[in-house]
Amino acid sequence: MTGRKLVSDVRSTHKLLSIDNTITDRVILSEIRNNTIFLVKRETNLRKLWATDTIFESLPCFQMKEVPISECCDYVDPCTVSRSVNKLPRIGEGNYQYLIQGVWSINAMGGKGKRIKEITINRYLNLLKLKIVKNQVYYWIVDDYLYTNNPLLQSIRMAAFFEEDVPNEILFPDCDCGKEYSLDELCKNPLDREFPCPGYLQKQVLDLTSQKLLNTYYRLKSDQTQEGVDGQAPNTPPTS
């Protein structure tokens, strides 16, 4: 379901919301996103949703470049690693880990290659000191950049639950991965994209969203009416 359809469903739930132009679609979608994030974190902490594509958005070709390992830690060594050219969009976090379904290398034909194992930078440094890394490729995230221990890796593919809209330059990269995008995809309004919310959670999200908007905006309007524009009760003459 698209973000626009979810916004429309929220407006149709209550007549007050449907006729109030001060509550914009952007405001409603923001509240929908906040409630979706809350419920998705609850479900993934219970080990649900990990096998579905409903909440995970794919970055088909995320560009990497070679950098010194000292860029992401205090380790002093001439070895290099690869780092994403762009920062990652904000990724959801559960009780135990980032909400990342997977990270893969990209093979010569532009398809999904080998899966890359997740690790923390501190654990990877311990492996380096013990000299037991061997040929295994790992990834970690520091300061919103994704790193891998393969300095020659030029691009990766990943699927994650992002808490914000993914910019077009990341979602539709200009690269040599063989993927072509239509003008409709490139120019699509974020409201018209599929929204990462499982079907069985949609009613809860809509109910939470409409209730929050009603409680916030109409209570605020009621308070302003009762207090008057200058903070005095209506029909109360100002003191001289």
Report on this structure.
The chain is elongated. An 8-stranded mixed β-sheet has the order 4-3-8-1-2-7-6-5, with no helix packed on it. With 240 residues, the protein is an alpha+beta fold. It is 35% helix and 19% strand. It has a domain at 57-176. The longest helix is centred in the last third of the chain and has 29 residues, at 199-227. The model is unreliable at 229-234 (pLDDT under 50). It has helices spanning 3-13, 15-19, 25-45, 121-130, 168-171, 183-187, 199-227, and strands at 57-68, 80-84, 100-106, 112-115, 117-118, 138-142, 145-148, 155-160. The chain has 7 helices and 8 strands. A hairpin with a 2-residue loop joins strand 6 and strand 7 (145-148). Helix 1 (3-13) crosses helix 3 and helix 1 crosses helix 7.
Features:
19% strand; 240 residues; eight-stranded mixed sheet; 7 helices; alpha+beta
Morphology? elongated
Strand-pairing-aware structural class? alpha+beta
User: What is the mean pLDDT?
Assistant: 85
Strand order of the largest sheet: 4-3-8-1-2-7-6-5
Quaternary organisation: single chain
Gyration radius (Cα, Å) is 23 Å
What is the end-to-end distance? Answer: 58 Å
Q: Major sheet: size, sense and barrel closure?
A: 8 strands, mixed
Q: Helix and strand succession?
A: HHHEEEEEHEEEHHH
Estimated share of beta-strand residues:
15-25%
Low-confidence stretches: 229-234
Count of DSSP H/I helices: 7
Number of strands: 8
**Percent helix range:** 25-40%
